[in-house]
Amino acid sequence: MFEAIKKVPVPSNFAEIHKEQLDILFTTASIFEAVKEIEEDPLKVIVALSQYQNLQNRLRDLFVQIAKLLPKG
Question: Are residues 24 and 55 in contact, defined by beta-carbon separation less than 8 angstroms?
C-alpha cells in the first residue's frame, strides 16, 4: 500500500509534506501493529506507545505546514 502512495504525483511545493505524511502513516501503522502484540511482547507495546505523543506533535506540525501552503480566502 505504501509503495503505491509513494508514487502518487504531488505538486513540488507539497513534496516534503507528502514525504512527512507518508512517514507519519507508516509510523502509525507500526504502532498499531505493535499494540496487536500486547500479549506476546508488552515491552514492544510500551515502546511503540511512547512514540505516539511525538507522532501527534508531528501530525499537528504537518497540518500547520499544509495550512500555510493553501490559498487564503
Answer: yes
What angle (nearest 5°) sits at the alpha carbon of residue 5, between those of residues 52 and 25? 5
- Asked whether residue 7 is assigned to any structural domain, the reply reads no
pTM equals 0.79
Domain of residue 59, residue span: 14-69
Segment holding 31, helix H or strand E = helix 15-35
Q: Is 3 a member of any domain?
A: no
Burial of 27 (0-12, 13-18, 19+ CB in 10 A): middle
pLDDT band with cut points at 50, 70 and 90 for residue 72:
confident
CA 12 to chain centre: 20
